[in-house]
Amino acid sequence: SPRKLSPFRSFASTELFHFHVPEDTFLAVWNLIIFKEQGGSFGDHCPDQSVTVYFRSGAPPVINPLHTHFPGDTAVPGVFSLTLSWTLPNRTSGIFNVSSPLPGDWFLAAHLPPGPRPHLCQVGLQDECQYLLQPQLIVRRLLDVAVLVPGRPSEQTLSPHNRSALYKVFVPSFTYRVSAQLVCVGGRGASACPLTLRLRPKAPPLHNSSSVACGGASVCQLELALPPWGRWVYVRVETPSRGSGRTIRFQLCVRLQECPKPNLSRALAPGAAMNMPQSLGNQPLPLEPPSLGAPVEGPGATSPPEHCWPVRPTLRNELDTFSVHFYIFFGPSVALPPERPAVFGLRLLPVLDSGGVLSLELHLNASSLRQENVTVFGCLTHEVPLSLGDAAVTCSKESLAGFLLSVSATSRVARLRIPFPQTGTWFLTLRSLCGAGPRFVRCRNATAEVRLRTFLSPCVDDCGPYGQCKLLRTHNYLYAACECKAGGGGGWGCTDSADALTYGFQLLSTLLLCLSNLMFLPPVVLAIRSRYVLEAAVYTFTMFFSTFYHACDQPGIVVFCIMDYDVLQFCDFLGSLMSVWVTVIAMARLQPVVKQVLYLLGAMLLSMALQLDRHGLWNLLGPSLFALGILATAWTVRSVRRRHCYPPTWRRWLFYLCPGSLIAGSAILLYAFVETRDNYFYIHSIWHMLIAGSVGFLLPPRAKTDHRVPPGARARGCGYQLCINEQEELGLVG
C-alpha cells in the first residue's frame, strides 16, 4: 500500500519498506510509483519535490543526507541510492534493477528533501500536499538449478544454443576453501576447452565475479577462499560470445576443504559429516576418480590452515526488544596465549535483530602484560571467521572484509558500534602480538587478558541528552531510531553538536517558557475577586501544568519532569483550551445551570479531541468558534429584550472588549502562522503572555444582585423606580 513521505530530519522520519528475495533469483526489479495528493484528489498544483530512495540487503540502510557526524567508533555500511524527479504533474515512476541479488531480506528507505522546520500547529488550516510512494518488487528465478555433491565429478554438456550452465553446492560450517575443477572431454588444440569458470557465494555469478578462462588447457581450476558458512556457492560454466558452434562435453567437480573435526565424522552418517542438507546427505559417495586429484591422507598430510580454530559459543540473554547481551563461558575475561587466537560466535536472529545496534567493547588488563609490548587485535567478520596474521595485521582477505580493533598498554579500551547489523552469525577473532607497528611478531611467553563485552541495543548511547530513542514499526518489522529534539544535537545518534544550543541558551529558553505562565496570576486574582471560582481553578490548572510541561519538554540537559511527559502534555493542552472555553462562556452570562452543563460538556469534548490530534489547529479554533457562537447568541437575545446594544456602555467596548479581542486574535495568529520549531521558545512565551492578558480584559465583572422591590411592597412605597447600574458593565475598577 502507498505510504506518505516526509522531509528528512532523522531516520525516524523516513519510510521503511521490507522485501524478501528468494534464492536462485537472477533479476530483481523494483518498480517505484510516486504520486501527489491534496485534499483527497490529485495534487496537480503541489510543488515538485525530488524523492530519494535507498536500498540495502540484509538490514535497513544507514543514511546520512544531512552530512552530519556519526558517533565515535561507529561503522557505516554502504547503500545503493536513487533520486527520482517528476515526469508528470502528479505522478512519476522509476525502475531499480539488481542482477543476481543476494537472497534474503532487502530494505528500502525513502524520504523527501530536508527542508526548513515546519510550523507546529497549522494542521487542518488547509489541505496539505502529500507525496506517496508505492514500491513493487518483481523477481525472476532460475528453476531447477543443478546441485553438485562435493567430491563427486559429474558429466555435463553445453549445447550450441546455451551459452552457460549454472550449478550450486552447499557449504557447511568449518569450510575454509571451495575449489571447482573443470575437465573438457574430447577437445584438442588451442580451442580444446573454450569455457570460462565463475564462482560466487550466495547468488549466481556476475561478470565481475571470480573467474578463470580455460582456453587451450584441458583442465582448469578456480578456488574460493573463506566462503560463507551455511550458504550456497554458485558455479557458472559459460562460453564466449561467439560460441564454437558445437556441443561441449566437460566434467565438473567441486571440492570442499573443511577443518578437521576429530571423533565427530566417524559417528555420523555419510554426508552428515559435511553438514549437508538432508536431501543431499542420505547416500554414500562413490570413490573419486584419480583424474581430479584426490587428497592424500596419512602421516605426511599437511596440517590444517590457520583459519581452523575452534569457535567458542556465546550465551544469548534477551532482556527486552533490541536489548540482548552475549555472555562467553568462563568469562567475561579472556586469556589469549601467544600461540593461538580465540574465536567467538555471535548469533543474530533473522529479521528480529537487524533493527538495533550491535556494540562491542574490549578492555585490556594491563597487569597481565608483564611489561611486554603486547597489542591485542580483534577482527569482527560476518558469516565466516578470519584469522589474523603474524606480520601485517589486516581484517580483510579477497572478497571478505571485517572490522579491526586493537588495544594496548597506551590505549586500553576499544569500541565498535554497527547500526542495523546484518543478521546471521558474526565471528570475533582475538589475537595477541608483540612489537610495534606496522609489523608485529608472535609473543613468546606473554599471555594477554582482555575483558569482552558484546550487546545489542536499540540506539547508540540511547540517543544522548538531545534525542529520544523511538521504537518504530513497518508492518511486521520492528526497528529503532533516534529522533533529535529541536535545538539539540543532530546526526544519527543526536551527538553532532554543530547546531546544538549552548547551556545558557537552553536555560534562557526554559525560563522564558516557564516564567511566562506567571502572567496567569492576575487573571486568577481577578476571577476570585469577581467570584468566578471555577474559572480561577481552570486558570490555576493551566498555569501549573503549562509551567512543568515546558520544563520537561526541553531539547537539552535543562529538563525537569515531575511526571510522565505524555500526561504533562495532555494536561497543558487541555488547560489551554479550557481557559479559552470558560472565559468565552463566562462572558455570555448564562444561567448557572446552563453554564455548568457547557463547562462539563466542553471538558469532555476537548479531552476527546486532544486524544485524536493534539497539534491540530481546529482543536483551538473549533471550541473558540463554537463558544463565540454561544456568546453572540446570548448577547443578541439580551440586546433584543433590552432594545439596545449589549454590553450597553461604550467604555466596556473601548477599554475591555476591543483590547482583549485584539490581544487574543494576535495570540491565535502567532500560534497558527508564526510559530515554528526554531522560534518556539520565544514565540510560545509571547503566546502565554498574550492569552493570559486577554483573559484579564475579557473576563466580565462580578454580577451584582438585582434588588428589585416585590410587587406588593411597591404599592406601599414612595414610588421609587429602580434603574440599571451601568457601572456593573465597566469592569473591575479599583
TrEMBL record:
<keyword id="KW-1003">Cell membrane</keyword>
<comment type="similarity">
    <text>Belongs to the TMEM8 family.</text>
</comment>
<feature type="transmembrane region" description="Helical">
    <location>
        <begin position="532"/>
        <end position="551"/>
    </location>
</feature>
<feature type="transmembrane region" description="Helical">
    <location>
        <begin position="503"/>
        <end position="520"/>
    </location>
</feature>
<dbReference type="GO" id="GO:0005886">
    <property type="term" value="C:plasma membrane"/>
</dbReference>
<dbReference type="Pfam" id="PF12036">
    <property type="entry name" value="DUF3522"/>
</dbReference>
<feature type="transmembrane region" description="Helical">
    <location>
        <begin position="680"/>
        <end position="699"/>
    </location>
</feature>
<feature type="transmembrane region" description="Helical">
    <location>
        <begin position="596"/>
        <end position="612"/>
    </location>
</feature>
<protein>
    <submittedName>
        <fullName>Transmembrane protein 8B</fullName>
    </submittedName>
</protein>
<feature type="region of interest" description="Disordered">
    <location>
        <begin position="278"/>
        <end position="309"/>
    </location>
</feature>
<feature type="transmembrane region" description="Helical">
    <location>
        <begin position="618"/>
        <end position="637"/>
    </location>
</feature>
<dbReference type="InterPro" id="IPR021910">
    <property type="entry name" value="NGX6/PGAP6/MYMK"/>
</dbReference>
<keyword id="KW-0472">Membrane</keyword>
<keyword id="KW-0812">Transmembrane</keyword>
<keyword id="KW-1133">Transmembrane helix</keyword>
<feature type="transmembrane region" description="Helical">
    <location>
        <begin position="557"/>
        <end position="584"/>
    </location>
</feature>
<feature type="transmembrane region" description="Helical">
    <location>
        <begin position="653"/>
        <end position="674"/>
    </location>
</feature>
